[in-house]
């Protein structure tokens, strides 16, 4: 009895320690973003800062339209992108999962092939700007992330676990392909849809590179690009001695201070932390279903 | 049975093969058509040269018939401006009237400028003007890739006024193999290394600046500060104060000035050893800020306002105002320790892309930016009354929060056309021009060290310097102990190989230019 007790205590202690080690960095980021710049300079990063100030947030909220618009762009892109992407991924995944589909292997290979090879940055850029004419449109942020071959293969893997008998019996009952897909397959695939939906949404949320390449209009800059810009420009200037010696005048006070960088992290990652718990329910279920059936 | 299986296997493989071939064909088709479209702009320079000459024949009277065009201009900025669109509109109003052209301003932030421009350039997108420099989106490399078009003829036909606005030595820095490929932005192009001192201490201790000839001469003053001014750091630095400028070494190539043998100096010179020793003695006496080796930006050394003296590599006219603004209003004195050296105009230039559909117009626009006061100040400071206020004469009051605050006059053009921010010396522009004029031009001007043959060594040496340089140069590490280690590591990293390669290239250059 008592050994058992000690045993479970030890296990709890281990998990408490792990949890703390994961929570502390989050807390630290939040606290630094609230710290006073001078106290960071003097004492380094502290969990409980000497002086608490919201000046870093004020720096960003000083021009609220910029950041609100960036939020708007990111949310629109994430939501629209995730919905369209899920539709495409599940349609393609479902098709591939059907063993009675004749071109199954070729199509699978076609999808798989794009995981190994891609055209490279420049052809991608040419395609997007000259053929699809997507430069400076919100679609430039959505289209590139619509279909990930990896997610298609995961979806296929999940859907091929759905017993063929279900499809057959539906056919016997007189259902056509669309009805089977919409009313049987999709509801059964909810865990996979939720899991992939979460991944896809994270990808869209974190995406900045496409925006960097294709977006010039200030109105379409997503949140992450705003963050990358501030960080990059600062790093760039501090890491290049040429900059100082290039006889170029530069006013460092134009750049956000340390605490502002962390404030950006909080501002950009915060909303995703709130979204996660809603998906988590499906996430766990999806994993277990996969495990039992596999 | 076995045969059947094998047969089946074969079928799958052949299907895959067929698919692969089909894909490859598809890809080839794709790239073929890409090449087709991209060829058109690539051909451009050839026929661009022709129209460049053409308008030269019928002179001024052909001008009013300019067709409306749109030009694109990519340049770097610190941050996005809220009122960018509004300023662009105002710019277009001017250019529409004078050139019948509109300009699409494309500011890109510094951190992503190079990556974005590389992609745009590689995709052969039709753009007109590209900002380039020696340190960001490098001029020489990109010219070698054929990104820019030669401007000599264009300057003659559409930019004579622009060409005349700068001395030969500026244009020389925009030349590669004898042809001009960019328009330098006239700004301070000379370096005058020296000390910056807070005026209150200079006055308090009656420091006679004329006695300070070498960096060592400042030591007694630093000691005075140390003893009498608690809380004040006598000397603030981030990466030390070693500079070829103050030790009679050429800045283009590490060679002693007036050395008839043109011997390239090793990475660690005897002056550098002396300098490190001096730094260490100051550091151990507590004259240098303790965190010197770990500070990132040069400004961190002094911007808290509690630093009495610091070293400044550039000595730019008007920088007293900038320094005193950075330290919270205390006045400072600039004391040069060396003669001004011409450091080249390559640090900021605007070039015309070879994909430009209207190179003549781009040239006309560049001329306008560099000669039209109104247009230039609009780009630098924004709209009068909204983004800045005129005070007296040429002076203006800017506002960083106004929605358009570039703080980068040197990106756009000739700074001699700019309004002066409040507090700048009234003769800032004259001083700049004077220093540029009197600055010594290195005899090695025009020599460009091609690091390609020693890429690995360069990276290795950089790694060693990243590890040791700041700590040694600020005196944090004892040179007695660490200098030998540093030198040994440099040797291992291939510093000598780089030196030999540079010597070889320099000799070739000297021979080719009849200097040896």
UniProtKB/TrEMBL annotation, chain B:
Occurrences of domain DUF3502 (ranges): 443-511
Signal sequence range: 1-24
Domain of life the protein comes from: Bacteria
Region annotation (Disordered) ranges: 31-63
Residue spans of biased composition, Low complexity class: 31-40
Keyword terms of this UniProt record: Signal
Name the record gives this protein: Extracellular solute-binding protein
Protein source organism: Paenibacillus antri
Lineage of the species this protein comes from: Bacteria, Bacillati, Bacillota, Bacilli, Bacillales
């Amino acid at each position: 009895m008592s050994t058992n007790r000690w045993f479970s205590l030890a296990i709890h202690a281990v998990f408490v320690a792990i949890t703390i080690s994961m929570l502390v960095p989050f807390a630290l980021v939040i606290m630094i973003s609230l710290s006073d710049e001078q106290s960071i300079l003097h004492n380094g990063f502290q969990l409980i800062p000497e002086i608490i100030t919201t000046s870093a947030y004020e720096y960003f909220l000083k021009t609220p339209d910029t950041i609100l618009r960036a939020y708007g762009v990111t949310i629109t892109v994430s939501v629209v992108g995730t919905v369209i992407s899920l539709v495409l991924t599940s349609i393609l995944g479902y098709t591939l999962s059907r063993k009675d589909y004749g071109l199954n292997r070729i199509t699978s290979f076609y999808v798989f092939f794009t995981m190994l090879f891609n055209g490279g940055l420049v052809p991608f850029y040419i395609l997007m700007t000259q053929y699809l004419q997507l430069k400076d449109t919100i679609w430039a942020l959505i289209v590139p992330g619509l279909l990930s071959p990896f997610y298609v293969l995961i979806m296929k893997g999940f859907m091929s676990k759905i017993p063929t008998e279900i499809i057959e019996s539906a056919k016997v009952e007189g259902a056509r392909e669309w009805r089977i897909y919409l009313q049987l397959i999709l509801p059964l695939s909810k865990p996979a849809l939720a899991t992939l939906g979460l991944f896809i949404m994270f990808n869209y949320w974190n995406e900045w590179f496409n925006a960097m390449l294709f977006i010039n209009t200030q109105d379409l800059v997503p949140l992450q690009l705003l963050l990358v810009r501030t960080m990059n420009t600062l790093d760039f200037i501090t890491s290049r001695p040429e900059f100082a010696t290039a006889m170029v005048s530069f006013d460092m006070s134009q750049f956000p201070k340390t605490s502002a960088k962390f404030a950006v992290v909080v501002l950009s990652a915060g909303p995703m932390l709130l979204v996660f718990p809603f998906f988590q329910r499906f996430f766990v279920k999806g994993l277990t279903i996969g495990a039992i059936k596999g | 049975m076995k045969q059947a299986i094998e047969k089946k296997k074969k079928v799958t493989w052949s299907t895959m093969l067929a698919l692969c071939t089909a894909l490859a064909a598809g890809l080839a088709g794709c790239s073929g058509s890409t090449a087709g479209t991209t060829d058109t702009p690539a051909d451009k320079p050839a026929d661009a040269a022709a129209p460049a000459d053409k308008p030269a024949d019928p002179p001024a009277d052909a001008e009013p018939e300019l067709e409306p065009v749109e030009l694109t201009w990519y340049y770097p900025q610190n941050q996005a401006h809220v009122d960018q669109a509004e300023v662009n509109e105002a710019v277009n109003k001017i250019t529409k009237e004078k050139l019948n052209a509109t300009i699409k301003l494309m500011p890109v932030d510094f951190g992503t400028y190079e990556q974005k421009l590389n992609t745009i350039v590689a995709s052969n997108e039709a753009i007109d003007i590209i900002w380039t420099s020696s340190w960001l989106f490098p001029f020489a490399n990109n010219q070698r890739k054929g990104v820019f078009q030669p401007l000599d003829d264009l300057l003659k036909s559409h930019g004579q006024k622009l060409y005349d606005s700068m001395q030969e030595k500026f244009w020389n820095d925009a030349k590669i193999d004898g042809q001009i490929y960019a328009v330098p932005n006239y700004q301070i192009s000379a370096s005058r290394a020296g000390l910056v001192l807070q005026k209150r201490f200079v006055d308090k201790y009656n420091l006679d600046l004329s006695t300070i000839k070498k960096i060592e001469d400042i030591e007694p003053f630093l000691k005075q500060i140390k003893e009498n001014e608690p809380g004040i750091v006598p000397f603030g630095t981030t990466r030390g104060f070693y500079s070829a400028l103050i030790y009679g070494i050429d800045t283009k190539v590490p060679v002693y000035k007036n050395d008839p043998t043109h011997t390239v100096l090793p990475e660690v010179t005897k002056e550098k050893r002396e300098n490190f020793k001096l730094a260490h003695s100051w550091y151990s006496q507590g004259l240098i800020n303790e965190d010197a080796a770990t500070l990132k930006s040069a400004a961190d050394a002094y911007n808290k306002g509690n630093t009495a003296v610091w070293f400044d590599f550039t000595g730019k006219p008007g920088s007293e105002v900038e320094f005193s603004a950075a330290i919270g209003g205390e006045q400072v004195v600039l004391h040069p320790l060396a003669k001004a050296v011409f450091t080249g105009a390559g640090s900021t230039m605007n070039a015309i892309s070879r994909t430009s559909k209207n190179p003549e117009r781009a040239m006309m626009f560049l001329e306008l930016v560099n000669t039209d006061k109104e247009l230039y100040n609009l780009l630098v400071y924004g709209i009068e009354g909204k983004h800045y206020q005129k005070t007296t004469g040429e002076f203006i009051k800017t506002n960083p929060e106004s929605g358009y605050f570039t703080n980068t006059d040197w990106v756009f053009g000739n700074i001699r056309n700019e309004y002066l921010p409040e507090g700048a010396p009234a003769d800032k522009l004259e001083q700049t021009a004077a220093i540029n004029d009197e600055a010594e031009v290195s005899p090695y001007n025009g020599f460009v060290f091609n690091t390609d043959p020693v890429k690995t060594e360069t990276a290795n040496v950089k790694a060693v310097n990243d590890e040791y340089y700041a700590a040694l140069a600020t005196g944090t590490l004892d040179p007695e102990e660490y200098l030998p280690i540093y030198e040994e590591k440099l040797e291992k990293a291939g510093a000598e190989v780089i030196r030999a390669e540079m010597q070889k290239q320099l000799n070739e250059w000297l021979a080719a230019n009849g200097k040896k």
